[in-house]
Every structure is written in C-alpha cells, then in structure tokens.
Amino acid sequence: MIIWLMLALFFIMLLAGVPIYLVLGCLAVIGWLVDGVPLISLAQQFANEMNSQTLVAVPLFVIAATFMERGGITRALINFAGTIAGRNRGGLAIVCVIATTFFAAICGSSVATAMAMGTALIPTMASRNYPASFSVGTVGAAGTLGILIPPSLPLLIYGLIAEASVPRLFLAGVIPGLLQGALFVAYIIWYSRKNKLPLEDRMSIAEMIRCCRDAIPALFIPLVVLGGIYTGFVTVSEAAGVAAFAAIIVSVFVYREVALRDIPDVLSEGIRQTAVIIVIILSALAFGHWLTSAGVTRSIATLVTEWGLNSWQFLLLANAIMFVLGMFLEVISVILIFVPLVLPIIEHLGIDPVHFGLVVVLNMELALLTPPVGLNLFILKNISGERMATVIRGTLPFVLILMFLLLIVTFVPQISLWLPELAYGR
C-alpha cells in the first residue's frame, strides 16, 4: 500500500512543479519515517554517499565544461572541423557534427555542448540561408553526442549507481558515438544535396595549416585526459582534475578568451551547476536506498521473473519506460530513479551492466530532444529565437536516426562491448 501512495505522491509533486530534488528528498524522508528509522540515519546516508572518489569527478568535469564553453575552444574546434568537412553542400552542418564530436571528447555535458555550438554556428548558418529548422535540429541533435562520447557525466553517474567500471563505460561509448556521428553526417549530406544548400568556400593551404595549428591545444585535452584513464596512469577523478586544470590554462593563456579576473565568475557558475547535480544525486541515492531496504527492487525483479520475460523483451520494455520518463524528467533524474530499480533484473537476466549503461544513455539522448522537457530544445529556442514548433520539426529526423541507433545497440551488444573487452578483457 505504501508503495502505491509513494508513487501517487511522486506524480502529484511533479505535476505541481516541485523541483525533482525536493520530490526525491521528500519521498526518502517519508519512506524512512514510515519504516521508523531515525532521520539522523538519513544524514549519515548522505555522508556515506558523498564519500565517493567517483563523485569527486562530477564537479571537476562540470568546471572543465564551463571553461571550454567560454574559453575559445569551441571556435578552434569549429575551424579545425572545417578543414575536415571540406567544400561540400551543407558544409557548416557537417562541421557542426565533427566539431561537436571533438568537443564532446572534452566536455561530457550535452547542454554545454549544444549551447557552445549553437551560439557559434546558428547565426552563421542563418547568414548562409540554411533553413532554420534544419540548423537548430542539427545543432540540437549533434549536442547529444556530449553525453555519449567519453568522458560523459551520465555514464559517470550510471557507473556510480550501478557500481560498474567507469573506464569500461567510457570506452563502450566510443563506437556508438562515432556511429551516431556518421549517421548524422550521412543524413546531412542527403538533405543538403536534395535541398541544394550552399557550397562552403574552399580553404587555402595556409588557412588549413593555421586552423590545425590553433586546434592543437584544444585537441591535446582529450588526448591527455582519456589517454591517462585508459593507460591506468590516472583514475577517473584525477583525469577530471586534469581536464579542469587544462581547460583553465588553455582558455586563459592560449586562446585568451577568459581573463584572469573572469576565473572566479566562471568557477562560481560551474560550482552552481555542480551543486544542483550533487543535490539531485544525493536525494535520488537516499530514495533508492529506501526502495532497496523496503524490498521494492526485489518485488520488481520477482514480478519480471513471474512474467517470464527474457533479456530482449525486458530491454524493449526498459526502452519504452525510459523514453516516457525522458519526456517528463531531465537526464540525471531518470538515471537515478530508474537504474536502481532495474539493477537486480539485469543481473538476474544476465545483461551486461556496461551494455545496459549505453542503452540508458542513448535513451537519455532521446530525452534531450523530446518535448515537453527536452533541455536541448529549450536551449536552441533561446539561442535561435525560433518557435518551439520549428525546433521540434528540425530535430525530428535526428530523433528517428537515434531510435534506429538505439535498436541496433540494444540488440547487438558487441557494438558497445567490443572495445572495452579488447582493452580490458571479458
């Protein structure tokens, strides 16, 4: 009975507009009080969850993303991507996908990626007479690569919740991420030729050399960070610290788009974003702990067993549930609510937790592009000034591509597991 009451209260509070961290925190407090557990134990639970080396990486990656968004790294990567895209129809859209791929390899946040790329590219696309819906759709969809290509904050948080290897999760995102980028580029080329989008100007050899030279400091960051993780030279938390430090140095002393006097302001913005994430994580972990102690997760696992679902049937059901949740909740909230519930089930069905982590994150990419709460949609609306209907229309083809990719990754686990198994063994 208490479970149904808690579920009803959850939706009532969400519909009333209560922030998700308060919803989860209140439900955790109610659950602990119903069980007769002193609330001091809840405070101790918060302290225990904070004592995590993996959690330390979250604020550091957020700070790194904040400096990269402001520090000229975006411009350098866009110019470098232009040398790769060449003189093709719709070249700016191809540049967007390529530059976003490189930016995602440093950033880990879809919102920061979409904001940085949108601010730089949408006005330029408009000046070149690109259709508005196509421009915003390309930037919004490409921005989702920020949470798939490593390092990725959602994968980091999933690893924290599922107690899965974060380096394996990061490696698992590489091939799906590159495949997603390739599918986007293929669609852009087809659309651009069909609609006769303008050809971009050809770069001179001197311009190409200058763009490549200017991009070296930006490209050096993911090389050091990811190389350090995969060689075992640094832990994920230490790599996050390296990323933050490198982003500050490159932004301030190389590209010089962040002055020394601006550092406290940028740091405070990153810390504010981190505080929101940490509070949501703690509230969700406390609520998840109550769900486990109350036997809810065990009951769900038993129910799935009684239904006789096999692994592929469960994965289809999980995708459907996450798609619906993603329409109404933001990414981290969905992961923190849904993953603890299904961990016993994926263990029982023999589903690899690393593979399931990629399935979760691909669903979260869709969540960023689906109304009414898709964050990338609102970011692009604010940047472009277009109507929400225009933004949604532009992202729709990319949503269909993402759904296709999700099905492939869901039912062909080796797409995500091959690289981590190659590096670390089974």
UniProtKB/TrEMBL annotation:
Pfam families: DctM
Transmembrane as UniProt keyword: yes
Stretches assigned to the TRAP C4-dicarboxylate transport system permease DctM subunit domain: 7-415
InterPro entries: DctM, TRAP_DctM
Membrane topology type: Multi-pass membrane protein
UniProt entry tagged with the keyword Cell inner membrane: yes
Residue ranges of the TM segments: 6-34, 55-78, 90-118, 169-190, 211-233, 239-255, 275-292, 312-343, 355-378, 398-419
Keywords: Cell inner membrane, Cell membrane, Membrane, Transmembrane, Transmembrane helix, Transport
Record localization: Cell inner membrane
Family stated for the protein in its record: Belongs to the TRAP transporter large permease family.
Protein task: Part of the tripartite ATP-independent periplasmic (TRAP) transport system.
Oligomer status and interactors: The complex comprises the extracytoplasmic solute receptor protein and the two transmembrane proteins.
Name of the featured protein: TRAP transporter large permease protein
Organism: Thalassospira marina
